[in-house]
Amino acid sequence: MKKLKVKWKRAQIHELNDRLLLYNLYLTQGLTLLVGAIWIIFQKRNVLNLFALPNSLHVLWWGLGLAAAILLVDLVLSRIMPENAMDDGGINQLLFQNRPIWHIICIAAVVSICEEFLFRGAIQYSFGPYWTSILFAVIHIRYLRHWIPTGWVFLSSYGLGYIYVQTGSLWAPIICHFVIDLISGLALRFRRYEE
């Protein structure tokens, strides 16, 4: 019987095509959702209860308010910091620059639901917002080469954890995360790149 040899190597940005990038995105988000569900089941909690719809609009206001604050600070940082200090290696640009608007909305929804389900819904329940935010910053590995975006991801994550605690609803951080990813994705989609 012939042995199957699997080679793992880190792909460079120029090696990624659109199909591979999307495959990687949706695979990692599916794994995030699965790990979150398993983690919550081991906590002896009901997965569906986390997605219960809130009975007031304060959850929406918390989510939109934090999203506006994060986007504003992000805009200021992008204006005062050199572009290479905020560089993610070109992944976000590659992901969004040629994407149809409906697909940007879909990506923002999938990422916000899956990541908030795992990080706020499962991990934060066990470790609190501080350690959850450290882990959240670490898994956004493409930012780790620069301390400013890494610190900003940590602070943003801590804010998401904070509004989850304040509202008691997973929908507040999901809404916030969705709006941030949607606006950022649309900005990259319609940004004019110098040739």
TrEMBL record:
Residues 99-183 form the CAAX prenyl protease 2/Lysostaphin resistance protein A-like domain. It comes from Paenibacillus brasilensis. The lineage of its organism: Bacteria, Bacillati, Bacillota, Bacilli, Bacillales. It comes from the Bacteria. Keywords: Hydrolase, Membrane, Protease, Transmembrane, Transmembrane helix. InterPro entries: Rce1/LyrA-like_dom. GO terms for biological process: proteolysis. The chain crosses the membrane at residues 21-41, 61-80, 101-119, 148-165. This is Membrane protease YdiL (CAAX protease family). GO terms for molecular function: peptidase activity.
